[in-house]
Amino acid sequence: MGFRRLVGSFVCGIYGINLICFAWSELASKNCQSSYKYSYIFQYDSYAACPYNEQVCNGWFLGRRCTTYTKYYRCVKKMSRVDFAYQYFDVCCPGYIELNNGTCLRGCAEGKYGTECERDCNCQGHAYPGCDIDTGNCTCLPGWTGSDCNKVCPNGWFGSNCSSECLCKNNATCSPIGGACNCTTPGWTGQFCQEECNSTRFGRNCQENCTCGVNETCSRFDGLCACIAGKTGVNCSEDCPAYRFGPNCTNSCSCAHSTGCDAVTGKCICDVGYTGEQCNEVCSSGTYGAGCNQTCNCTGAEVCEPDTGECISRCVCHEEGTANCNSLYDSCRCLPYHNHTCHDENVFLKERCRDVCECSSPTDTCCVSNSSMCQCKDGWTGRKCSTACPQGTFGRKCYGICNCSADELCHHVSGNCISLDTAVVCANLDAIL
C-alpha cells in the first residue's frame, strides 16, 4: 500500500467531472499468478472511469486474464489538470475470496458458482444454501438425497446426501438425520439395539416392567410368564415329578437304574451300584455307591460289593441251597429268583448270590438282572415298585403327562381323567378303570 507520483505507467485525465484512467504494463503478455500479487495486466489502451476525487476505479480493463489477484486504483489527489497522485491496492480475482490474512482462496459468494462465480446456484428445498463452486451440485441436508434434495434417505442410510451407513441391529430403524437407532423389535435395547432386555423388562426398547412371580421367568418379547426349570403348576409352586425336568417340567428323563433326574438339568440320579449318563453302567472294579463315586478298600483277594462297598471273598455262595460255588469260573450258580435275576433257570453270576428279590408283587414283574432295582409295572415307581406315579403323571416309569383339568384326577396307570365327585365314592379306583 502507498502513494506514488505518477510516472508513466498510469495516466489519469479529466473527462467531465470524472477522471479517465489509462494503464499499460510490460507484464501485459503474462497471466496473473500468485507470484505477481502486486502486478496487473492491462493493455495500453485499456481504461476505466474513476469518479472524481478519491474513488475506486471499476477495474474492468480490457485484455485482463486474472487467476488469483488483480489490482485496483484509487485516485486520491489532483496535482494539476493532467497530473495527480494515486493509491493502489490488490484484490482477489473473481472466483476467489480474500481471507483475513490477505491471501486469496478459491471460493464464491453464497448462491454463486463457476470459474469466476458468474453462475447462480439452483438449490432449493432440503439443501444447504449455496452449491459446489465448481460443479453447481447441491449439498443436501441430513436425511435427504437426490439432485434436488427431495428424496428421504433409504432404510439403512443417513446423513447429508445419505452417505453414511446405519449401525443398527435386530431390524431396528435408523434416523435418517443423525443415525440414531429406534429399537422397534421387542426384546432389544442399547445404542445399536444389540442388547437383550434384562430379566425384569420386556417390549420395545425394554420399556415395560415384568410382573412375574419368584418361580417364573418373563419373556423379553411380550412379558408372558413361564415356570422356571424344575417348577410347574399354578404360580409355578410345584416341583417337577419324577423323571420330568426343565421349564414347566416339559422334558422327560431317559434313565435306566435311577430314582429320577435333576429337575433343572435332567441329569440322571443313579441308584447305588450304577453310573453313566443314563445310569446303565455297573460300577467298575474298585468303586461303589450312587454314581460309583466312592472308592472300595478291599484287598486283592476280595471283591467290592457295588451297592455298599462291602469287601467279599471270591466265590462265597449262600448256603441252604441258594447257590453252588463253581471255582472254575470263580462264580456262584444261583437258584431261581436269587441275585435279583428275572430268569427261571439257574444263571452264572460273579461274586456271590445276594438276598432273594424283594420287589412288591403284584406291582412288579421281577427284579432287573444283576441289580437291586425292581422292574415296575406301569403306574408304579420306587426301588420296590411300591409307590404310585405322582399325580399328573402315569404309565411306564411315570413318563406320561396327564391332561386333566383342575377338578379331575389322573389315573396313575392309564392316564384317564376321573371327576373328583366320582373318585370320592369309589372304594377301589383301580377296579373301575
TrEMBL record:
GO molecular function, one term: scavenger receptor activity
SMART domains: EGF (SM00181), EGF_Lam (SM00180)
Entries under Gene3D superfamilies matching the protein: Tie2 ligand-binding domain superfamily
Statement: the UniProt record of this protein carries the keyword Signal: yes
Domain EGF-like: 163-194
Lineage: Eukaryota, Metazoa, Spiralia, Lophotrochozoa, Mollusca
InterPro entries: EGF, LE_dom, MEGF10/SREC1/2-like
Keywords attached to this entry: Disulfide bond, EGF-like domain, Repeat, Signal
Coiled-coil stretches noted in the UniProt entry, renumbered to this chain: none
PANTHER family found in the cross-reference section: EGF-LIKE DOMAIN-CONTAINING PROTEIN (PTHR24043:SF8), SCAVENGER RECEPTOR CLASS F (PTHR24043)
Protein's name in the database: EGF-like domain-containing protein
